[in-house]
């Protein structure tokens, strides 16, 4: 009986669940929340109520109206309130700013929005406080003088701005300490002549109304001075803001701060104060004395930029920056961070400061920014205009009331928790809504209601309704432990069957997603699965735009429960009609209905806009398009009169008058040329909406002018014709007379010069040059020299009325002037080689001298593109050198340039450059002038005539070459001109760049610029290319190229490689923020070719890889109906390194509607879209349709040619084509003659989830079943999985999320498998991302840190943003303060710089990633900055990362900025230039300092801590304890492995942390195609080379001894510099042979594919090519790859074996031979199939490793002849380790090779004795395993001992060592420190040593002794500056 009762109860419960499920269709946001209690229900949000009735069979938590409809007798609900408590109306007569209302109280339900009306008033001439803050450094002396003279004008301007104003003045320089200020006593007293002592900031004149006092006080001010260029203006701005009383700011006035300077600025942690020992943060307090002097300049640091923004906003101060051109770009970035600020460019003498002030004030008054301050976290505020639109700024009219809306919204969640779980301070508070310039504000006391139900306070204990097993709370049973069911009548221990847990039609209980308990399903993961049978997945509801429920609702019971205001299956439809409003405010222009937020327009033959209005693009030109038809139909005039009028598509309607109609589309008026009358007509919508033509009404009567003077027109025309005939007769008469006179004997004496020919006819297609050598001859006795000046004019065939001649060129346009001169030196063959030394020397000499002369032309620039040649047929000068160069200057400067050139040539010199008189050429793009010389005895010379060949030339153009005069000599001009006709033929080929601009990453190393050739007639052809500098400079940013590109038959595209150079030292600093660009030009096409659309392209050098550009190759494609396939090519330009995807679709095709992705693998530049027209069930007919590219991947963008037109024409020409098509279509559905099935048709693949794809297709006749093959894109089809189905549909499951799959389908019958279909691509949907990679911290200071993280190993989609949360915690790891959240919306910026942290406070940092699906889990780390080493002073902040202010309050997100915008001064950021790091350490063109200086240590760092007692010892320490640490980095794009060793007291402590990126799928995911990357390299190419040290040079390292006698500061510095100089000596190997390639980078492209890249080695001569050798580490064939292109610095190696180690070697070749090779060992690790170890698992992650080499070698000097060598075990040796073999030999030969055997797995050290002092030794360590010997680890060591002598008491001996490591995969840095101590002379001393290990090179150790005075002054600045300058 008990069992029967139990089953009955369970049955009743299941029945109730079924009833509940039946109502699930009525899902809403209340039911979707699944509230368990009454309080949870009423806290959901608006409209939700709870029914506490005991008997209620529906959802208790539902919408209020639903509960009422279901007869709930009593409901629990809450309502929000809104009340205005203070509302004083605005009084426009008052002269200060006001807002209304002033105070409100408002309560909000979670998720509820409310709007409040707000009025704002700003008076016309309100009170104004103006404070001028001026830079008083010596360079501003003339600015101060001007300001003194402008006192009267300043008063007048301020009086115009306000009726009630005050004015004040302050001055600043910089901190009075080194290195900012010269601290010598004389300079402290008077830094410059007639100047005041230096100071930081002084409030000279507080704000005052006494203008006379202001002017008199200002007259007595004198300038001051400091040392460095940046100034301390930030200190002054902060004091001006916080010292409210001292400055005199008034409460209700507008506060303006004018900041005037010509220098950059210092800011917090920029490094300047580290040298001065000022480490304390700015306390943001006022520190002004009674006389206005700032007292804490040498006690605390400068403020940060976020601090200034916050404080100026808090005190309503608007900054106006008046900056000179020198530093304008710095402040241009800075002023953008302020909510409202103005910027003006100051003249060098500040003469325009008043106009800047006036314009800035007008701009400020014309716009207003309204912000909500101090809002609680749970409330969101938005300020809207009266019409409801949002803007950053709003325009208001002073003197008028502006109206705005304040929209408040209560959030549902605060962080990850529901809003009602947040702290009360986060849920309630007082907002201040105010314009940024106002002090008055609207205060709103806002609270988010989180009330509890009263019924929960009085539960019925052990209620009868709950069978005594639970409490009845608000009508619902809450069961005691061990009981289940709605009435607590089922014991968890009772045995019940699972039948009641099986969904009808299914076999598995609870759908396999839960446990069946008491006949009820308890789902495993309630956050994902729900329903009576756990049958609903919360991640599988409808999506819109890829987002679950459009992110406007939640997934509940398999359907989207939309938030209020949204509807639709995927919550995609807004309920409001705002998006359907037309331009008049109506709904869909009354021509449609609004559905789902979109207008559905009535059917119309006319194109309409989205709001059913006339399409704007169609309206353009509507009047003009109908003009000719209106003329011909109404009056039979115009260009269509006659039969052409019948072609008009519409008929006009003649009317007497055109009525006024507001709905008319266009009103048109034109003048009729036939009778000079004006006619009028209107264009409107057709009366019948189905008509395809507009309705045109024409007014019958024209408006004609009076005909009083029309008879004069033919008379004037006749007189003009008569005058022309008279002029022609006169000209002919004069020509005949001149010819007759020339025949007289008296006139024929003497010499004559003239052109040899009369006319030249040239065909453009046959031209091989852009010029023509035109001979000029001389007759008569050639006994002396004659110089003839000539000129050329282009397009003389065009008359004055020609359209091109009507276009007047812009005289200010900057153009290029080719200039040619003959040098007074003989030509040599070496001058033809641009890279030759002689050429370079002469080129510089020419450019320097010519530039000095031409720069006197206004607007002229430096000459460039200098080349050298000779000129044939130039008489006795044909062996002289002719220089061709290009001058850039304004077009109007042409006469001045010709005159200046002629003058200098006749003088025979351009400054120091000697030229031959009598020869020059100056040309523009349309004319040229020059001179040629006839030497004695010379009868003929050539005139080099430019032909000005351009694309826009006419089909036949003429040039006129004229001999102007003979300035030198006695010859007369005979034949004074020659005509040149250039005939433009139709081109056989067209050359063009694919894009007008390209962007390449500097990290790519090479910019491959494609030159496209469109073939019209096939054959061979050529084109010339060359590069030219813009902002990028030759040999600094790139290597210029020029040459000819030859194309053979059929060749359509070739690329020109341009080598890009890495950033040099200082390139990343403040002074060089320009975008680097150069151009490449095409010219001189030959063999019938011409230049196309883009003859020039601009190349931008970016600091990070740019996306690929996708375009259709052609704009039109033509096929015929007989073609079996349509292949449409798509080309990819710009970045081709990584994989990318673009989607395509058909438009307006009659037979199919197709869309599919097109995937490009790394290196692929062109792919075809293939369409099979026979695969679709209708006849193939002629048609025209369009293909469109859309939705490119993150690594690509779509170019200009995003569409192409496909024309399908009739291929037969008879009427049988369609019948044939129909017959073929019928046959497709049948079997082949042999009975074999054809492939299925109409296959559709749709992703239904992250792991599911559904396919369906048309059934095949006689098919018994189907097979579906599917595999991951990129894998071989042979590895595909096969699914057998019986119906024409299939469901693929257990797939990888966001992965590309390819599929084929075939049918089968008794005869076997049929034909497989074409490949069908499909991509699974995204899923939530995994947690980010390991967090890393770079400690800048105790209050500033940089946190970075890696991309999640499983992105499961495209990462769109990251969220960073940091919380102060206590010792129990509990929050001790509010949490701060930062959203980073750029997924590539995986770094964050956080300022203003609390010192000595432990923080918990959390980072999570987001894709389109949602947020992933957090990655968490805890760190206390005070316990971490800080970064060295000289390392700049890593650029381009977000910066936030930890003390900025809840609105700090608005201060999010990037550090490449936090500007540095030019002289405050010196840093060493270091190269050879991986892409992960090279961030956007700057070095990752965490890599360069591990742990923040450096051999040059100032170790000063005001809190450290060790620095204040007054007695020397008896001994110096040395601590040594070593860090090894194996880094790459995928991650890094860090080993850290601590050597203390002889012990060895080791910790290892592995950072490895795991990619989620086999297909390529990263934008650059690199899944993992490892760099092997040395520092020779960067840091040491800049110090003058070759990577193969040997040098001595000087160690320092610490003397016991007292020494002076100057002695210490001089000795240190002398020792440093000895380190920086240089020696090199044979300069002709290339050195070792200085960087080796391995990048995994797949489990079996690898990209090997390297850097070009240093070589005195040109590198001709490279050789890459590789083989398996355990033997095998050696494979060789030859690289003949010296610009190519990478190769891709395919078909490698997974998990096998390979050794790679790369070397370079020059004319002198091969250089040494760079060697590296690498392994691609990936999961493999256990049955086939050489086959990678599909979709498995892969990464790079170096498994078999021993770890880095560590040398410890025990004595001058003995050392200890230790190493680390190989990470993954091939086999068990048996021991090691160690070899030792002298580096430069001599002595015997010594070998040591170290047996056993545990032994990893060896002591070696009998070594010689000062002798470099090479050590090699090789592991021996059961599989053989692994690769060697190499190191070089020298033990250098000092000569015997007096040793100090601090150290009895000083031994230094130099180490060099051959690390194929690692870069190791050792840093050794001795504890600081204070010597007897008061000098703080510390010895530090840093050794850098890198592969295959000899690197240097620089050991330095740092000394510093315990006081605030320092002596290390000079040493550091000279060190970095070296």
Keywords:
single chain; 1926 residues; mainly beta; seven-stranded antiparallel sheet; disordered N terminus; disordered C terminus
Tell me the radius of gyration.
42 Å
Question: What characteristic shape results from the CA principal axes?
Answer: globular
Mean pLDDT: 75
From the helix content, strand content and strand pairing, which structural class follows?
A: mainly beta
Strand portion = 35-45%
Helix content: 10-25%
The DSSP helix count reads: 26
Distance between the termini: 98 Å
Question: Care to describe what's here?
Answer:
By secondary structure, the chain is mainly β. The chain has 26 helices and 117 strands. The strands form 31 sheets. Strands 41, 43, 44, 45, 46, 47, 48, 49, 51 and 53 form a ten-stranded mixed β-sheet that branches. Strands 91, 92, 93, 114, 115, 116 and 117 form a seven-stranded antiparallel β-sheet that branches. A six-stranded mixed β-sheet has the order 9-8-7-10-11-12, sandwiched between helices. Strand 11 (317-324), helix 13 and strand 12 form a beta-alpha-beta unit. The protein is globular, with a radius of gyration of 42 Å. The N and C termini lie far apart (98 Å). Mean pLDDT is 75; it is low at 1-25, 738-748, 1068-1072, 1213-1233, 1430-1440, 1449-1629 and 1842-1926.
């Amino acid at each position: 009986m008990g069992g029967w009762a139990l089953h009955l109860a369970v049955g009743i419960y299941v029945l109730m669940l079924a009833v509940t499920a039946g109502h699930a269709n009525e899902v809403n946001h209340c039911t979707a929340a699944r509230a368990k209690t009454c309080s949870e229900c009423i806290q959901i949000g608006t409209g939700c109520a709870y029914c506490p009735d005991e008997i209620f069979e529906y959802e208790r938590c539902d919408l209020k109206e639903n509960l009422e409809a279901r007869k709930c007798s009593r409901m629990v609900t809450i309502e929000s309130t809104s009340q205005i408590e203070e509302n004083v109306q605005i009084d426009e007569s008052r002269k200060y700013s006001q807002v209304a209302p002033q105070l409100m109280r408002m309560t909000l339900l979670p998720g509820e929005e409310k709007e409040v009306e707000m009025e704002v008033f700003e008076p016309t001439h309100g009170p104004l406080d103006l404070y001028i803050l001026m830079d008083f450094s010596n360079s501003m002396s003339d600015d101060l003088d001007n300001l003194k003279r402008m006192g009267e004008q300043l008063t007048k301007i301020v009086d115009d701005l306000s009726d009630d104003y005050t004015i004040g003045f302050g001055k600043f320089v910089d901190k009075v300490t080194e290195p900012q200020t010269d601290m010598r006593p004389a300079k402290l007293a008077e830094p410059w002549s007639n100047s005041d002592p230096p100071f930081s900031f002084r409030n000279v004149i507080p704000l005052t109304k006494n203008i006379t006092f202001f002017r008199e006080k200002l007259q007595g001010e004198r300038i001051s001075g400091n040392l460095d260029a940046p100034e301390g203006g930030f200190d002054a701005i902060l004091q001006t803001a916080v010292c409210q009383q001292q400055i005199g700011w008034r409460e209700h006035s507008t506060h303006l701060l004018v900041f005037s300077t010509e220098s950059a600025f210092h800011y917090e942690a920029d490094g300047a104060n580290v040298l001065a020992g000022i480490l304390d943060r700015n306390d943001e307090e006022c520190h002004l004395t009674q006389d206005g002097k700032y007292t804490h300049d040498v006690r605390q640091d400068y403020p940060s930029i976020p601090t200034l923004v916050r404080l100026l906003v808090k005190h309503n101060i608007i900054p106006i920056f008046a900056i000179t051109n020198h530093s304008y770009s710095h402040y241009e970035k800075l002023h953008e961070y302020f909510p409202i600020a103005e910027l003006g460019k100051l003249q060098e003498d500040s003469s325009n400061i008043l106009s800047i002030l006036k314009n800035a004030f007008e701009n400020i008054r014309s716009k207003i920014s309204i912000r909500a301050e101090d809002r609680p976290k749970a409330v969101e505020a938005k300020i809207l205009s009266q019409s409801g639109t949002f803007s950053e700024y709003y325009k208001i009219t002073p003197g008028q009331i502006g109206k705005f809306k304040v929209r408040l919204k209560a959030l549902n969640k605060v962080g990850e928790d529901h809003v009602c779980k947040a702290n009360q301070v986060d849920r309630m508070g007082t907002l201040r809504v105010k314009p940024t310039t106002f002090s008055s504000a609207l205060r709103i006391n806002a609270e988010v209601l989180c009330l509890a139900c009263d019924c929960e306070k009085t539960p019925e204990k052990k209620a009868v309704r709950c069978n005594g097993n639970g409490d009845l709370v608000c009508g619902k049973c809450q069961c005691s432990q061990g009981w289940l069911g709605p009435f607590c009548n089922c014991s968890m221990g009772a045995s019940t069957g699972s039948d009641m847990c099986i969904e009808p039609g299914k076999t598995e209980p609870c759908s396999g997603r839960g446990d069946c308990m008491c006949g009820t399903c308890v789902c495993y993961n309630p956050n994902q699965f729900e329903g009576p049978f756990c049958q609903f997945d919360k991640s599988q509801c409808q999506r819109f735009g890829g987002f679950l429920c459009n992110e406007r609702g939640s997934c509940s019971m398999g359907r989207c429960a939309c938030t209020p205001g949204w509807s639709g299956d995927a919550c995609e439809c807004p309920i409001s009609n705002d998006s359907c409003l037309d331009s008049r405010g109506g709904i869909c222009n009354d021509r449609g209905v609004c559905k789902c937020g979109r207008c559905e327009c009535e059917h119309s033959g006319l194109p309409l806009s989205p709001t059913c209005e006339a399409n704007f693009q169609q309206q353009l030109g509507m009047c003009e398009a109908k003009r000719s038809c209106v003329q011909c139909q109404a009056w039979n005039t115009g260009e269509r009169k006659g039969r052409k009028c019948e072609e008009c598509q519409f008929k006009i309607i003649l009317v007497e008058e055109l009525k006024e109609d507001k709905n008319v589309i266009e009103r048109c008026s034109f003048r009729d040329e036939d009778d000079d009358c004006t006619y009028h007509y209107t264009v409107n919508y057709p009366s019948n909406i189905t008509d395809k033509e507009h309705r045109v009404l024409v007014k019958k009567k024209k408006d004609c002018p009076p005909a009083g003077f029309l008879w004069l027109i033919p008379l004037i025309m006749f007189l003009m014709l008569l005058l022309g005939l008279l002029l022609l007769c006169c000209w002919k008469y004069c020509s005949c007379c001149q010819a007759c006179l020339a025949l007289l004997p008296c006139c024929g004496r003497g010499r004559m010069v003239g052109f040899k020919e009369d006319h030249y006819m040239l065909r453009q297609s046959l031209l091989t040059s852009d010029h023509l050598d035109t001979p000029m001859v001389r007759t008569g006795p050639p006994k002396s020299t004659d110089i003839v000046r000539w000129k050329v004019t282009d397009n003389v065939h065009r008359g004055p009325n020609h359209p091109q001649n009507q276009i007047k060129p812009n005289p200010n346009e900057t153009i290029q002037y080719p200039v040619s001169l003959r040098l007074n030196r003989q030509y040599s063959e070496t001058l033809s080689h641009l890279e030759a030394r002689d050429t370079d020397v002469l080129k510089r000499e020419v450019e320097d001298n010519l530039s000095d002369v031409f720069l006197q032309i206004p607007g002229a620039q430096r000459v460039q593109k200098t080349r050298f040649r000779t000129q044939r047929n130039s008489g006795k000068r044909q062996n002289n050198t002719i220089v061709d160069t290009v001058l850039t200057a304004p077009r109007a400067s042409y006469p001045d340039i010709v005159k200046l050139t002629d003058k200098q040539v006749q003088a025979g010199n351009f400054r120091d450059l000697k030229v031959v008189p009598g020869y020059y050429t100056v040309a523009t793009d349309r004319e040229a002038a020059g001179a040629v010389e006839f030497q004695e005895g010379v009868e003929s010379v050539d005139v080099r005539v430019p032909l000005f060949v351009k694309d826009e030339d006419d089909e036949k153009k003429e040039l006129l070459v004229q001999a102007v005069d003979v300035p030198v000599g006695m010859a007369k001009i005979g034949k004074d001109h020659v005509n040149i006709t250039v005939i433009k033929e139709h081109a056989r080929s067209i050359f063009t760049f694919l894009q007008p601009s390209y962007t390449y990453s500097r990290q790519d190393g090479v910019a491959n610029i494609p030159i496209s050739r469109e073939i019209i007639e096939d054959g061979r052809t050529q084109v010339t290319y060359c590069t030219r500098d813009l902002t990028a400079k030759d040999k600094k940013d790139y290597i210029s190229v020029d040459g000819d590109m030859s194309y053979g038959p059929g060749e359509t595209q070739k690329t020109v490689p341009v080598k890009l150079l890495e950033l040099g030292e200082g390139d990343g600093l403040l002074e060089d923020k320009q975008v680097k660009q150069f151009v490449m030009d095409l010219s001189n096409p030959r063999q019938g070719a011409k230049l196309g659309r883009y003859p020039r392209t601009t190349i931008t050098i970016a600091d990070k890889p740019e996306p690929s550009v996708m375009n259709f190759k052609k704009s039109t494609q033509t096929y015929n109906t007989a073609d079996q396939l349509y292949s449409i090519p798509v080309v990819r330009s710009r970045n081709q390194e990584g994989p990318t995807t673009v989607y395509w679709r058909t438009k307006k095709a009659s037979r199919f509607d197709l869309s599919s992705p097109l995937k490009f693998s790394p290196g692929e530049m062109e792919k075809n879209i293939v369409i099979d027209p026979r695969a679709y069930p209708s006849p193939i007919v002629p048609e025209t349709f369009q293909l469109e590219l859309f939705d490119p991947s993150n690594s690509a963008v779509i170019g200009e040619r995003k569409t192409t037109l496909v024309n399908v024409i009739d291929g037969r020409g008879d009427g049988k084509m369609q019948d044939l098509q129909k017959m073929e279509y019928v046959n497709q559905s049948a079997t082949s003659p042999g009975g074999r099935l054809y492939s299925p048709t109409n296959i559709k693949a749709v992703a239904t989830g992250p792991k599911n794809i559904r396919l369906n297709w048309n059934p095949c006749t006689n098919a018994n079943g189907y097979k579906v093959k599917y595999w991951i894109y990129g894998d071989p089809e042979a590895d595909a999985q096969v699914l057998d189905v019986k119906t024409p549909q299939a469901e693929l499951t257990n797939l990888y999320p966001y992965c590309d799959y390819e599929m084929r389908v075939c049918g089968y019958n008794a005869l076997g498998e049929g034909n497989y279909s074409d490949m069908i691509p499909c991509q699974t949907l995204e899923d939530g991302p995994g947690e980010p990679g390991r967090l890393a911290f770079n400690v800048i200071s105790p209050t500033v840190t940089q946190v970075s993280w890696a991309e999640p190993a499983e992105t499961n989609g495209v990462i769109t943003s990251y969220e960073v949360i940091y919380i102060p915690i206590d010792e129990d790891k509990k929050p001790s303060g509010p949490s701060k959240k930062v959203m980073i919306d750029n997924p590539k910026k995986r770094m964050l710089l956080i300022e203003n942290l609390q010192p000595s406070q432990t923080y918990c940092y959390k980072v999570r990633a987001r894709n389109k699906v949602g947020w992933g889990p957090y990655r968490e780390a805890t760190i206390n900055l005070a316990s971490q080493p800080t970064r060295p002073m000289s390392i700049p902040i890593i650029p381009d990362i977000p910066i936030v202010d930890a003390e900025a309050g809840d609105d700090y997100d608005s201060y999010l900025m990037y550090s490449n915008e936090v500007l540095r001064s030019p002289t405050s950021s010196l840093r060493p230039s270091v190269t050879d790091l991986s892409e992960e350490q090279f961030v956007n063109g700057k070095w990752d300092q965490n890599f360069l200086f591990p742990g923040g240590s450096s051999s040059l760092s100032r170790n000063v801590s005001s809190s450290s007692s060790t620095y204040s010892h007054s007695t020397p320490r008896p001994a110096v304890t040395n601590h040594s640490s070593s860090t090894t980095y194996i880094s790459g794009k995928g991650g890094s492995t860090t080993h850290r060793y601590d050597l203390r007291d002889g012990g060895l402590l080791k910790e290892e942390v592995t950072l490895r990126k795991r990619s989620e799928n086999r297909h390529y995911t990263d934008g650059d195609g690199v899944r993992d990357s490892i760099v092997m390299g040395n520092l020779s190419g960067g840091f040491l080379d800049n110090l003058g040290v070759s990577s193969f040079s040997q040098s001595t390292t000087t160690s320092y001894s610490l003397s016991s006698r007292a020494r002076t500061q100057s002695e210490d510095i001089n000795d240190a510099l002398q020792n440093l100089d000895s380190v920086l000596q240089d020696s090199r190997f044979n300069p002709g042979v290339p050195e070792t390639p200085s960087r080796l980078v391995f990048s995994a492209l797949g489990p079996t594919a690898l990209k090997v890249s390297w850097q070009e080695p240093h070589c005195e001569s040109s590198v001709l090519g490279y050789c890459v050798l590789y083989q398996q580490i355990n033997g095998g064939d050696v494979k060789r790859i030859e690289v003949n292109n010296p610009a190519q610095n990478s190769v891709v190696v395919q078909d490698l074996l997974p998990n096998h180690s390979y050794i790679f070697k790369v070397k370079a070749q020059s004319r002198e031979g091969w250089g040494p090779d760079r060697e590296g060992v690498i392994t691609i690790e990936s999961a493999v199939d256990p049955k086939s170890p050489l086959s990678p698992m599909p979709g498995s992650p892969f990464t790079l490793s170096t498994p078999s080499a021993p770890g880095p070698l560590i040398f410890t000097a025990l004595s001058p002849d003995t050392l200890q060598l230790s190493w680390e075990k190989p990470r993954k040796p091939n086999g068990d380790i048996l021991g090691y073999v160690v070899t030792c030999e002298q580096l430069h030969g001599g002595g015997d090779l010594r070998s040591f055997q170290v047996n056993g797995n545990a032994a990893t050290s060896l002591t070696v004795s009998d070594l010689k002092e000062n002798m470099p030794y090479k050590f090699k360590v090789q592991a021996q395993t059961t599989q053989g010997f692994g690769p060697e680890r190499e190191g070089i060591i020298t033990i250098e001992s000092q000569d015997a002598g007096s040793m100090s008491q601090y150290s009895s001996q000083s031994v230094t060592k130099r180490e060099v490591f051959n690390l194929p995969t690692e870069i190791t840095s050792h840093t050794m420190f001795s504890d600081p101590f204070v010597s007897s002379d008061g000098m703080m001393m510390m010895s530090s040593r840093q050794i850098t290990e890198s592969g295959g090179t000899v690197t240097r150790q620089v050991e330095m002794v740092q000394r510093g005075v315990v006081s605030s002054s320092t002596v290390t600045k000079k040493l550091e500056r000279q060190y970095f300058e070296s």
